[in-house]
Amino acid sequence: MVGLYLGRSELESESINTRYLHIQLLPSSFDAAGRANAAQRLTCFLIDDRLTVDAGSIGIALNDAQRRTVRDVIVTHPHMDHIASLPIFVDDLFGELEQPIRIHATDEVIDLLKRDVFNDNVYPRFDELKNERGRVMEYVPFEVGKEFKVAHFTITAVPVNHIVPTVGLLISDGKVTVAFSSDTAETQEFWNLVSRAPHLEALFIEASFPNSMGALAEASKHLTPETLRKELHKLSHNGMDILAVHLKPAYRETVARELLELGIDNLSVMETGRVYEW
Ligand SMILES: [Zn+2]
Ligand SMILES: [Zn+2]
C-alpha cells in the first residue's frame, strides 16, 4: 500500500497513475473553516476517480475534476449514511451530463431508492428526466453472486447480514483486487467470496461500535472490534491491508484503541481524505 496525502488543488492537478488502483474514503465532516476532519459520518469510497462504492458524501466532497469523471455509483444498501448526498450529486450535474449517472444495485435496493428517495416527494424521479443530451440517471440492476462489469472493473456482490438488504463487494481492475464488507454483523457468504479470490490487496471492513456496545451492534447488525476479530478468522488469506471503516464518530477513539489492541499487524483505521494506492 502506498499512501498519499493530497490537498484539493494537488488532487485536481494530479494525473492518475494507471499503475495503481486508487481508493479514497471521501471526507464527510468539516470544521467551521471548511477543513475536512477525521470523523466518518457518511460512507463513499471513490475508486480511480471513476466509480464510487456508496454515495453518502458524493455530492459534497468530490472536487471539480472528479465530478466530471464519476459516472457509476454502486449502492450497497439504502441507509441514509450511504446515499445522503446522491440526489444532490445528480441535481448538480443535471444540465451538463452527456451520459446518465448509473446507479448499480440489486433490484431490492433499486425498489427502495425509487420508493423512498427518488419519488417526486423527497427528490425528483431523475431516472425519468432528461436534459438536452438525454437521460440523467439510470438504474442498472445486478444479481448477487454473478460477476458484472462497471467501467474497467469486474465486480461480484453477495448478501451480507445487515438490517436491510445489503451487499458486500469484491472489485478487481484486472491486477488488483479489493473487498468491501459494507455494513454487516457476522456473515459467511462474503468471506467465502473473498477467500475464493486468487489474491487480495485490501479489505475494507466495518467496525461501528465499541466492544461495550455489543448488544446494540448485534441489534443494529454491525461489528465491534471483538466481532470483527472473529470474522477475520473466516478469511483464508492473510497479509492484505485491512482497513477499518464506519467507526461511529461518537465512539471513534474507543473503537480505534480496541482495534489497535487486537494486535493485528496489517489492520488500521482508514483515514478519510487520504488517497490509498495498491
Ligand atoms: Zn447500514
Ligand atoms: Zn452505514
Report the uncertain regions: 6-15
Output mean pLDDT.
94
Structural class: alpha/beta
For the biggest β-sheet, the strand order reads 1-17-2-3-4-5-6-9
Percent in strands:
15-25%
Distance between the termini: 5 Å
Helix content: 25-40%
Q: Radius of gyration in whole Å, from Cα?
A: 18 Å
Number of strands: 17
- What small ligands are held by the chains? zinc ion
> What is the H-and-E element order?
EHEEEHHEHHEHEEEEEEEHEHHEHEE
Tally of helical segments: 10
State the shape: globular
The description of the largest β-sheet is:
8 strands, mixed
Write a concise keyword list for the protein shown above.
single chain; 278 residues; alpha/beta; seven-stranded mixed sheet; 24% strand
